[in-house]
Amino acid sequence: MFSGQVGLGLRGLVPFAFRSLSQARKSFCPMDLGSLRKSYKGDEEAFEEKHLSSLDPIEQFSVWFEEAMRCPSIGEVNAMCLATCTRDGRPSARMVLLKGFGQEGFRFFTNHESRKGRELDSNPFASIVFYWEPLSRQVRIEGSVERLPEKESEKYFYMRPKSSQIGAVVSQQSTVIADREYLRKKNAELEEMYREATVPKPAYWGGYILKPEVIEFWQGQTSRLHDRIVFRRLQSSSAPLGPMTHQGAGNWVYERLSP
């Protein structure tokens, strides 16, 4: 009796599920998002050249980064979109975490054999973007990328929680796997293996540093006349500056871009 009722229930439910899926496919239509619009800052809150805290863009980034850290509405201040590109010009992008910055550049860590790692090997240039939506701000940074010394990668690897160390060993990033169960089993095996032992840092895992050549500071305005101040690192300090180009700190110059 019980099994018969279950069978009837399933027979009744399955066709309904397929009908719903079929109907959903037929009823789906492209979404017009033209009406989605958000108000940013007013003109009285414009970001002008006089508001720069420093003419050194790394120091200016530090000021904005600290202000973002103090904003409780921002979940991960150091989350950034990292865009890389193949040698023949096919781009890819993903979110990663910034793990340090200074005058030498911006540091992050990942699997060297991942898609981004392979692309950086063949085309060692990248762009990173920070978007701090509650502040209506973004920072875009472009430059060349180099691997960090192994010693620095090891130092950071052993600062991570042990579970994250094991995760780096488990994941052959960007390779195809059968299902999530494979990851669960592999993770459990390695947790047991390294319960009382040090997790060895995989040779394929390490850090990179993006050495900035362009840093743009963007602040949204409700009028869509957004503020864009971009710093460029000059390759030659003897090159004459244009009438709308201003000298920054060191070999940096800055300009205002039209939105």
Q: Can you walk me through this structure?
A:
This protein is α+β, with helices and mostly antiparallel strands and 259 residues long. Helices cover 30% and strands 28% of the residues. It is built from six helices and ten strands. The protein has helices at residues 2-27, 57-69, 115-122, 150-157, 162-170, 180-193; strands at residues 79-85, 91-97, 100-102, 105-111, 125-132, 137-147, 205-219, 227-233, 246-247, 252-256. Strands 1, 2, 3, 4, 5, 6, 7, 8, 9 and 10 form a ten-stranded antiparallel β-sheet that branches. Strand 3 and strand 4 form a beta hairpin. The longest helix has 26 residues, at 2-27. The protein is globular. It starts with a helix and ends with a strand. Residues 1-18 have low confidence and may be disordered.
Main attributes?
disordered N terminus; globular; 259 residues; 30% helix; alpha+beta; ten-stranded antiparallel β-sheet
Compile the SSE list and pairings.
Blueprint (H helix, E strand, L loop, with lengths): L1 H26 L29 H13 L9 E7 L5 E7 L2 E3 L2 E7 L3 H8 L2 E8 L4 E11 L2 H8 L4 H9 L9 H14 L11 E15 L7 E7 L12 E2 L4 E5 L3
Helix pairs in contact: 5-6
Short précis:
The chain has 259 residues and is α+β, with helices and mostly antiparallel strands.
Rg, Cα atoms, Å? 25 Å
Number of helices: 6
What are the low-pLDDT stretches, counting only 5+ consecutive residues below 50?
1-18
Secondary structural class? alpha+beta
Range of strand content: 25-35%
Order of helices and strands: HHEEEEHEEHHHEEEE
The quaternary structure here is: single chain
Determine the N-to-C terminus distance.
71 Å
**Rounded mean pLDDT score:** 89
* Fraction of residues in H or I helices: 25-40%
